[in-house]
Amino acid sequence: MRDRVARLTGRAVREGPAGHPPRATLDDGTVVVVKDSSADPGAATAEAAGLRWIAVPGGPPVPRVLGADDALLVTGLVAPGRATPAAAERFGRELATLHAAGADAFGAPPPGGPARAWIGHTRMENRPHDGPWGDWFAADRVLPYLRAARDRGALDPAGAASVDDVCGRIGVLAGPDEPPARLHGDLWSGNVLWGPRGDGDGDGAAWLIDPAAHGGHRETDLAMLDLFGLPHLDVVLAAYDEHSPLADGWRERVDLHQLFPLLVHAVLFGGGYGARAVAAAHRLR
């Protein structure tokens, strides 16, 4: 492992990798994070492309990619910090800036990112779609995971039919048309690290890690932040809406956008998440 880290970074490794997440110290004293994705072929390449793509001027800070191959990713380390209202307000503005950077199409992968990417430990297809967002979201984000969750018994036939019915009404439920946004794509609270900005600003920052980046609807990232809770989320959303106003009815569409991550979790972890997806579908009736 040391040899691989040295090859990817161009620096000798003084110690490690060790710990959780695994860290290594390079010969110049730099501490780096080493992520082994060999169990998910291509995941490291996809994540590296995603990190580079979402590192936009004025957007949330992102760890620097120091090297990557098909199975190993080496990035900078985010120093620990704490969530503050000031950092949350800045995060809202920065996330709006990231989304506004745009994408070529719904479903488009980051430049250099594979079409067959990953979200968690399950596959995710990134195929550019030239139609409306709802058609793409149903076809490439909801229905594949609905079928997989149903096949593993995480949803019963009646529950699966309820989610399928939402897909059939997606054009009515989707809200006003918006251009493709540049999404983090897996923006649950665990992928937001609160730490110092590194520029002397004492307010701190929200750093983004582990993206499943693609072109999508900006409300999807916001709905995923809400899925497991985020410190000062109300501050984040207010700052976002002030910087880049959200379309009327966006709060009523949170359940729609959460269907995707809930079904991914149902595939990975089982029926409790399947039940939550069905409950979200029922609320959209």
From TrEMBL:
GO molecular function terms noted in the UniProt entry: kinase activity
Keyword Kinase carried by entry: yes
UniProtKB keywords: Kinase, Transferase
Sequence intervals crossing the membrane: none
A UniProt-annotated Pfam family: Fructosamin_kin
Record has Transferase as a keyword: yes
Homology family: Belongs to the fructosamine kinase family.
Name the record gives this protein: Fructosamine kinase family protein
Species this chain originates from: Pseudonocardia tropica
